[in-house]
Amino acid sequence: MEIFHISAECYPVAKVGGLADVVGALPKYQNKAGHLARVVIPCYDTKFKKENKFECVHWGFVKLGKFNFSFNVLKETTDKLGFELYLIEIPELFDRKEVYGYEDDIERFLSFQIAALDWIIGRNEMPDVINCHDHHTGLIPFMMLYCDKYKKIQNTPSMITIHNGLYQGQFGFDKLHYLPEFDLAHVNVLEWDHCINSLAVAIKCAWAVTTVSPNYLNEINYSANGLESLFNIVRYKSRGILNGIDTEVWDPAKDKMLEKNYSVENFQKGKQQNKETLCTLFNLDPKKPLFSFIGRLLEEKGGDLLPQASALALSENYKEINILILGSGNQEIENHLNSLLVDYKGNYNTFIGYNEELAHLIYAGADFLLMPSRVEPCGLNQMYSLRYGTIPIVRRTGGLKDTVIDFGDDGNGISHDQASVGDICYSIQRAVSLYKDKKHLNEIRQLGMNTDHSWEKACQEYIEVYNLIINKV
Ligand code: GLC
């Protein structure tokens, strides 16, 4: 089967969050399973772009209202990622360091979607399915169905995979003329809450809707930033498929970013050595339990709760614990976290920024990983931490609920119900007691390390959904 994944991110080419990890892994496993999966993303000014070779396989023009942009389609020449990677190069719009956050993001991603479809319909064969990811590619299913110039691909099924329904890519009808010509009888399809809502459009027009965990699919029926009723209507074509993790990239036995490799047979020693390196780097005491947070410092991830929870946990435990935070995001949260550095020196540290290598070392060297998310459609960090023998402490929401079971119920982690300072501190307290019972602690670590979160199974579920929609044609 020939599959095109169209996305804004793909690891290791351009990464902001977990979307990149999924788009950088799922296609690889689809190819291993005998399919032909390709990835199309915009061409940003990233390290990967500079350090790798590309050939131009197509060029054209995108017309966006009164603007005209020329574009090239660049193919990575070695296929070393395990899939064919295509970058849509539109220099005026994407030759920038960041993936998102610009005033013209609507124009950027709309041009990207149009250029991607222009190129695909120019090819001899149409793919069997187009898998769009999140709102940045949400207008593709609409354009495939209703735009005159894409008639050739009208009967190709499209699917939208929702990694995060909070972000929806809304814009005003004043930009309607940016879209390629379509039959105006369908203009209503674009509307949700008086705007053009890219995610809502995808949910309406895609032949199938998937979310990145089964529990998140249940949750969005009552909590989806205004799209609840729409999700209820499309339930018949929706499915929650739990993400996998790339067990080749995330393998403590082979991970080159670690100080010491280890497996489930010798994890105690291996983890300790990584912990010591980490503690030396961050002026922490390797004898104390090490709690970490890795991720974006946003309210959505419970980042705003971290400063207060850290301060309270450190004072309640009379400095018997270590906390290390790695992340960036909301400046206020960053400042608040840094303001604790003076009072808790020697027991607390931060690294404000994004650092993939350090993240790997933390998964290996930490004892517990905090994920107090308010919203977590799947969450990958808890799966990485399980694989590295680090016990996740999570709020029971979205995919965290599907993957982490409290050790009180013979599970692999610690979980609590509320995204609150009180619940986080209570869980930390339970972790501190658990840390003293080394036998139990190691049993739970082992359970986590033995859990299979590889992509093989999830990959098969994607194929099942593609088959369902392909057979509808
Ligand atoms: C988004 C979600 C996260 C999910 C990831 C990959 O970043 O917030 O929960 O794991 O996408 O699907």
From TrEMBL:
Claim: Kinase is one of the keywords in the record: no
Binding site for ADP-alpha-D-glucose: 15
Catalytic reaction(s) noted: [(1->4)-alpha-D-glucosyl](n) + ADP-alpha-D-glucose = [(1->4)-alpha-D-glucosyl](n+1) + ADP + H(+)
Domain named Glycosyl transferase family: residues: 283-443
EC nos: 2.4.1.21
Presence of the UniProt keyword Translocase in the record: no
InterPro entries membership: Glyco_trans_1, GS/SS, Starch_synth_cat_dom
Top-level taxon of origin: Bacteria
GO biological process terms held by the UniProt record: glycogen biosynthetic process
Matching Pfam families: Glyco_transf_5 (PF08323), Glycos_transf_1 (PF00534)
Keywords from the named record: Glycogen biosynthesis, Glycosyltransferase, Transferase
Domain (Starch synthase catalytic): residue spans on this chain: 3-231
Pathway the protein contributes to: Glycan biosynthesis; glycogen biosynthesis
Class of this enzyme: transferase
NCBIfam families reported in the protein's UniProt record: glgA
Function: Synthesizes alpha-1,4-glucan chains using ADP-glucose.
Similarity annotation: Belongs to the glycosyltransferase 1 family. Bacterial/plant glycogen synthase subfamily.
Protein name: Glycogen synthase
Highest classification ranks of the organism: Bacteria, Pseudomonadati, Bacteroidota, Flavobacteriia, Flavobacteriales
